[in-house]
Give the backbone structure.
Amino acid sequence: MRIVVTTSASISSSSESRVDYKLVACLAAVYVIWGSTYLAMRIAVVELPPLLMASMRFVSAGAVMLAIAIRRGAAWPRARDWLRVVPIGVLLFVGGNGFVAIAEQPGGVSSGGAAVVCATMPLWVGVLGWFFEGARSTAREWIALAIGFAGVVVLMGGPSLDGEPRLVAIVCGAPIAWAAGSLLARRTRDVGGAHAALVGPALQMLVGGAALVVVALARGESIPAHVSTTAWLAVAYLAVFGSLVGFTAYMWLLRNARPAVATSYAYVNPVIAVLLGAALYGEPLGASTVLANVLVAIAVVTVLRKRSAPAR
């Protein structure tokens, strides 16, 4: 069986299909890089407060990206554009990324466990798509959602999702927030005009980073006086690769590919996160973790195959 992935702009009358190398490169970026960010976040939050750590990552990456866009000729974003991305930035970076950072604090969930929970995000895209884009979920998508939830339930019974119940509940809310933010982001593809590929993600990261600072200060977070080089290197990795490279690739996918394709990284990330966590951080790798990975992968692939079928 051969699966051909096409973007919304790549379907033509020609019977021959060509490989879209930009699509492949962007998928590779979100597949591999984002799979490793769960471990990097877990390393960083050992010494740094979770939300302030995340804000440093996104504000720095967003500022660099906006500077690059302006240097390439983009105009300074209008106030209306900043306002349009506020809910997106809050959902993606406070709800999606911030919740994961909080949940991965010492005493919380493992990086592999968080990645498996977040792998249910494409299923939430299918459910929430009806509210945002009028796309009704099919019976098969509901079955896929049930299988994905079964994977999370299995994970909760194993060591990978051990931790305070409050932190487990928080990480379970992360994929819902990220799915809602992703669907909203599809409505702002015009922000930045010809430079939308840079300006849009930059504004979202800057707004989301600012919101993270507000919530962090409200929680009483502060940067410790002494932080190890390892923690700072983890933050730098998250800013450069996780945000500048990975998030830019993801925004391109949301603009140019079907939602099911753009979010397909979610079933690859847990495999990478679980293996890295076990190999480098000594995280538990038991039968429940493996079974949860399999169930979530089956659920998401079911959604992908269903939506990919009409494209020939």
In short: The first helix runs from residue 21 to 44. Residues 51 and 215 are 8 Å apart (CA to CA). Residues 1-17, 306-312 have pLDDT under 50 and may be disordered. The two ends are 14 Å apart (CA to CA).
